[in-house]
Amino acid sequence: MKHIQNSWVSVGLILFLVSFVFLFQYMKKYESKTNLVTLWSSTPPYSTDPIEYGALIHHICFRSVLSSVLTQYRLGKYEGILAESWDPSNDYKEWKFKIRNGLQFENGDEITPKHIVYSWMRMAYFQKKKNSQSGFLELLKGFEKITSPESSIPGLEIKDQVIIVRLVKPFKKLLETISFGLYSVVHPNDYNLKTGEWKNPTKIISSGGYKIESWRKESLELKRREDFLPEIRHPNAPKNILITWNPEIKFNSDIISGGSNDLTLNKERIFYGPFASDIAYVICVSWPDKNSICNSKEKRRFLRNEFYRAMIQAGVKPTYSFFPLTMANIKEASTDFKNNPKSSPPSKKGQSLKYVHTWSKNPFFDPFDGAMEKIAKKLNLKIQGQKIPLKKVRQEKNPLLKIHSFDFALLATGILIEDPFADIRFMFLSKEGIRLPDTDGRILKELANENFDPQKINELLWDQAVIWPIGHFSMGLWAKKHIDFSMLDTVLPPTDFQWIGLKN
Predict the structure, then answer these.
(1) Domain count along the chain
(2) Radius of gyration over alpha carbons of the chain, in Å?
């Protein structure tokens, strides 16, 4: 017996040494590079296409690779990137953007007003095709006449170096909107001009301050472009950025993407991020499936009560509001588990409970698996937990699917407190966003009102019981003290590397 124990100790020591050598070699590979910043994130990217920009990991990886006409990520002001100036009409229905001369894609091709219009038209084509609303492109004059990515409409016109945007109604917040990566500029060689389809999800011709140097199984390396607007970026912006999702590298990284409430990350690091406006939540993905465990509202409410009981027993005090309570007039739903009548278990003989967990360590996320297991045990259900790519989770949220491969997913998203109305509309109306469900059409009916009531949306989400809020936090970056965020507006998701620097 003692011999067996000693053997296991030897095996453990060997595994430790192998892991140490691997980590040493991995970091040694990059230590010779000057101005290198390493950033760790829990999930890998899966597409360079801006249409997939809604996933946080793509914001992290590609916000600095893809340029927008302007940005609001620089602290204290809007900074023109592709545009050197802009001018709205008095009624905010027409905007003029003067585009800089001499800016180039990484392959040397000049970035022209046509590239910007083509990029926006491609996105407008997809939005019209999918009946999606982003908050901007559907307001273009002639939007209804778009039939291809190459369509020409009066809402987008080019005169010399000026792009004229004409809208069907006033839009004061256009600058904030087009700062979002969905409206960034891509090279026409990256997609099919006739169909708009993206050619290669791991390739892109950079239009921004950084380019993709390499994309490996466990890392993505960006390299600073010395030819792209050096006069406006942080004077000591890193030359090389290594983004990795290898768990072995996490605590050796300069920056870790994580939640403000994850205090395991605060050792030797400072948190940079927006207000606590992110929300961890469970979504009943399979609700449209007639054979699903959560097909009916009554079943979902029963399961939600059991889930909350399990989370409270695990030490989590859930929120009963999807929208952050820091928003004006937002209140939690009234919930009393002790007096809630217990309906019969929402299951058939042999039915399963299938869930996915897409997040790494966070106080709100940790008890999720245990809560699912408690529900399954109490209701005598078979249980299957799995971890699948984020892309697959996003695909399964399509309400038109008749069969789903899992029932529940743990997700997180955020809302811009500065402009919650536009963000709420984007959450429900855009097929490129997080695609929040509306089981009976009442939410979409409320959103049709120009001055809709966010609390009513909040209450309808609670009533439909497809979304189960867990808690609010801030998703941002935990950075070591030598990383300089003084030029970055950290109220927004802080991942535009052009405004992040290294302290001397």
Answers:
(1) 3
(2) 24
